[in-house]
Each structure stands twice: as structure tokens, then as C-alpha cells.
Amino acid sequence: MLSLLRSRKGQFFILSAVTIVTILFFVSRWIEPIKLTDTSSLALADEGFTFDNIKDKAANAVKGSGNCNDLNYNVQEYKRFVERYALDKNYKIVFDYSIPSCTTTATVNFHIKLHSERADAESTFFVNWP
Question: By C-alpha distance, which of 58, 52, 54, 51 is closest to 109?
């Protein structure tokens, strides 16, 4: 009779444990929000980051030039790179620059405009060389 009583205690313990786990599972499902907000679209929309990066690297192309020929070449090559990159990303970009005069110093004027399905950005700025 004692062994029959012990086996019922074991069955009660297992049944209680399963019941408690099941109740906790359903309570956690009930407390969990019904719909989670998807913020991945913000992370995938990199137009702002791309635009700021284009501006920074344009300034670096100017500042890293050794002479007037290098200045003109570096900015022109960077313009080509940006246009190819924008085409690959399906952005429309306007990358205009002018170097009014170049002797021992120069000022490079930039006008950059980026357009995509999700964003528009535009900036006009200048960078002094050297």
C-alpha cells in the first residue's frame, strides 16, 4: 500500500509540473503584445547616411589633393564613383561642382542633390583647399 501511495505522489508531482508550465506558457502568450512594430524599414532606409557620407568624402577628396591637377582629377573621379554608386542603389543624384580658380589655394563649390523613393536631400557647400 505504501508503494501505491508513493507512485501517486510522483504522478501528482508530474501532473502539477506540466499544469504549471502550461499555465505559465499561456499567460506569457497573453501578456505578449499582439503585434510587434517592425522598425527594419528605418534601418534599411540609408539615404540620409549615404548623403552625409557623400558630402564628407567630397570634402576629403578636396583636402587630400596635392596640387591643382590632383584636385581636379580627384573631384572628377569621386563624382564618377558617386554617380555609379547612386545608379546601383537606384538613387537619382545631381553632383555638381566648380573650381573657379586654382593657384596655391582654391575653393571648390559643391551642389549635391539626392532623390529616392523614400527621401530627398540637397546641400550646397564649399571646401577650401589646401
Answer: 58
Across the chain, what does the average pLDDT equal? 87
Q: How far apart are CA 63 and CA 88, in angstroms?
A: 27
C-alpha cell at 87: 545608379
pTM more than 0.70: no
93 contacts 82 by C-beta, under 8 angstroms: yes
| DSSP letter for each residue of the chain | -HHHHHHHHHHHHHHHHHHHHHHHHHHHHHHS-SS----HHHHH--HHHHHHHHHHHHHHHHHT--SHHHHHHHHHHHHHHHHHHHHHHT-EEEEEEE---BSS-EEEEEEEEEE-SS-EEEEEEEEEE-
Q: How confident is the model at residue 97 (pLDDT cuts 50, 70, 90)?
A: very high
Residues in the chain: 130
Q: How confident is the model at residue 48 (pLDDT cuts 50, 70, 90)?
A: confident
> Domain segments of the chain: what residues?
2-36, 46-129
